[in-house]
Amino acid sequence: MTVNQILSTKGKEVYSVLSSTTVYEALKVMGEKNIGAILVIDGTELKGILSERDYARKIVLKDKSSKETFVHEIMESNVITISLSDNLDSCMELMSSKRIRHLPVVDNDIVVGIISISDVVKSIIEIQKDTINHLNSYISQ
């Protein structure tokens, strides 16, 4: 299964904030959209990603104010991305080896989607269900 297939089921909606947004405002968007990370995009350029983990470690534990800190100050700017043609196994390997939970999908230098570890796990479960059903029908014949 490819990233494109996952996005065709999940949808390609991308939520983002500007790097000049306050962390507080970014967290409000994350809460409204019920997401654990948000992309930081200025214009069409992917600048970074901000996660709940970034907030916990770089704001809460350092006793900073989310209303006075800008996203660019705490975001992860070294963003690992994937393409529409990448497969599920490579995504799982990346997420495991880099210890990340979200992968922005980039096509021609434009963000076209994002997948989470949850999306990958759901897809793997669906593939396994299909395999089990196929094997059951083969055995039943």
From TrEMBL:
Gene Ontology terms for molecular function: kinase activity
Record-linked SUPFAM superfamilies: CBS-domain pair
Q: Which UniProt keywords apply?
A: CBS domain, Kinase, Transferase
Q: Show where the CBS domain sits.
A: 8-66, 75-131
Q: Does the keyword Transferase apply?
A: yes
- Superkingdom of the organism of origin: Bacteria
Do the record's keywords include Kinase? yes
Q: Which InterPro entries match?
A: CBS_dom, CBS_dom_sf, CBSX3_CBS_dom, Diverse_CBS-Domain
Q: What is the name of this protein? A: Histidine kinase
Species: Flavobacterium hydatis (Cytophaga aquatilis)
